[in-house]
Design brief:
InterPro entries: Lysozyme-like_dom_sf. The chain is mainly α. It has five helices and no strands. The radius of gyration is 31 Å and the shape is elongated.
């Protein structure tokens, strides 16, 4: 048998193996592309959900500001939110005269305020800040959630913002 005839089956086997390797490479490339597309789709869905949540948060803040009692018109931003929430805790809006200076001392009404010495966080300076999760999962970023938690804390521990402010003035903390 000629040498070329002996090599033909081996060449065919090599060609089949090469075709199988090409097919495996193509399949791996398709799988990688599908995985990349799925990741991009998941990222887009996550981004859309975050945008929807941000829009809902903004709409809720706008609704809260619009529903604020007329006596809250002197306040803006986080202070107006607090003023609007006071009645839901059974407090008169006049309690703002105690709440404003207390939380100004604590955080300057900054919902991202962090005390590196104690670890206290947010407008009411909750210690630890994670306590505010009981008022909402968005406690780290939503001033209204922090204010709700703070007003609940004040009501349960001191009875009213005025009583909390009196304690603060005597002790430098509440």
């Amino acid at each position: 048998m000629p040498l070329a005839g002996l090599l033909a089956p081996e060449a065919a086997a090599v060609k089949v193996a090469a075709n199988a390797a090409d097919a495996a490479t193509k399949a791996a490339a398709l799988a990688a592309a599908a995985k990349k597309a799925a990741a991009a789709k998941a990222a887009a869905a996550k981004k859309a959900a975050a945008a929807k949540a941000a829009a809902a948060k903004k709409a809720a803040a706008r609704k809260l500001a619009l529903s604020a009692p007329a006596s809250c018109s002197a306040y803006s931003g986080n202070q107006r939110t607090a003023c609007a929430l006071l009645p839901s805790f059974g407090f008169a809006t006049s309690e703002m005269s105690a709440l404003v200076p207390m939380w100004t001392h604590e955080s300057h009404w900054n919902h991202r305020a962090y005390n590196s010495g104690s670890g206290a966080y947010g407008i009411p300076q909750a210690l630890p800040g994670s306590k505010m999760a009981s008022a909402g999962s968005d406690w780290q970023t939503n001033p209204a959630t922090q204010i709700r938690w703070g007003l609940g804390y004040i009501k349960s521990v001191y009875g009213s913002p005025r009583q909390a402010w009196s304690f603060w003035q005597a002790n430098g903390w509440y």
